[in-house]
Task: structure prediction
Amino acid sequence: MTTPHLDPHLVAQLSLAGRTAVVTGAASGIGAQAAVTFAQAGADVVIADTNVDGLEATAERVRALGRRATVVPTNVGVKAEIDALAAAALAEHGRIDVWANVAGVIRYSTMMDQGEADYRLIMSVNLDGTYWGCVAAMNAMKETGGAIINVSSAGADMPAPMISVYAATKAAVQMITREVATEGGPFGIRCNAIAPGFTDTPMVAQHFSNPDGSIDPVRREAIFEQRRGQAPLAMTGEPEDQTWSMLFLASDAARFVTGQVLRANAGVVMP
Ligand SMILES: NC(=O)c1ccc[n+]([C@@H]2O[C@H](COP(=O)([O-])OP(=O)(O)OC[C@H]3O[C@@H](n4cnc5c(N)ncnc54)[C@H](O)[C@@H]3O)[C@@H](O)[C@H]2O)c1
Result:
């Protein structure tokens, strides 16, 4: 079998060689894979999360690719910690070319039973974390330009029970994305969002985990089967199905793209 020829000009548009990418939520799931995908494209990465063991595991995967990984434990719900993340990235790498706000949490409740602590947690991570992450990235990129990628959700486009706070934050992420695109454009800053459909990560494993944290394989298959049944492509996603979109949005191949929401979701939602 011959190796297909990839035109160097095409590959160059998707390359992140020589660039620095900050990724939040990088200890797990989509964020961990985003750090790896960006490193595969040639970037050095600065990775942030509250889960330090998970960050170290991601850093090892990045270093195995021959790229630098700087670990910065960060609670994105605290603006001062996001500012410290940006400062650490600039101190270590001298510039920030890509900033991906991936950290997120979900908690399930009907609106009538919604507790205030969970409400505040979801708002703080998903909304405050994304907003102040964008602000820190814009300030870091205002001389050089750059690409910001936010993470919305299919849940932002489709009302569903039990996720009212989560869905509200993910709808807000789409509007923050357009605001950043509007104010950042004159500085050469692009901002886009992905809105993932059901993607196999620890976040969705909550649906089929036992109280001891182990996975119930029968419940898992039933949920995956149900999700496949809702999708025109009859698929659920892997983290790479999101990070390939993120790479496109981070790269020069998307130089004409800003303020948009890219929905890798097997066609489940087409707003
Ligand atoms: N998996 C899906 O099906 C799906 C669908 C739509 C959207 N999303 C979104 O994708 C993003 C990544 O989710 P995932 O599926 O990889 O889940 P995940 O649970 O595997 O990863 C989320 C990461 O965010 C981190 N995090 C949580 N609170 C934090 C905080 N305060 N500060 C810093 N880091 C924090 C967690 O430690 C974890 O590493 C989230 O924004 C999520 O809402 C996921």
Summary: The longest helix spans residues 116-141.
